[in-house]
Amino acid sequence: MSSPSPDPLALAAASASPPHPRRRRLLRRRRQRR
């Protein structure tokens, strides 16, 4: 896969972490705030 990826860093992060680690944290914080 030597094609020009849009975000090599994002791809690496997604491969090591979930699809949206930051979004999940926000959801958890919002639920607790409510």
Helix and strand layout, with pairings?
Elements: H1 8-16, H2 21-33
Would you kindly provide a written description of the structure presented here, covering whatever features stand out?
- Residues 1-34 are annotated as: Disordered.
- With 34 residues, the chain is mainly α.
- It is 65% helix and 0% strand.
- The protein contains two helices and no strands.
- The longest helix is centred in the C-terminal third of the chain and has 13 residues, at 21-33.
- The chain is rod-shaped and about 40 Å long.
- The mean pLDDT is 62.
Q: What's the total count of β strands?
A: 0
Work out the radius of gyration: 14 Å
Please state roughly what percent of the residues sit in beta strands, choosing from under 5%, 5-15%, 15-25%, 25-35%, 35-45% or over 45%.
under 5%
End-to-end separation in angstroms reads 45 Å
Find the structural class using helix and strand composition: mainly alpha
Order of helices and strands: HH
State the helical fraction.
55-70%
The overall pLDDT average reads: 62
Largest beta-sheet details: none
Number of distinct helices: 2
Low-confidence stretches: none
Shape: rod-shaped
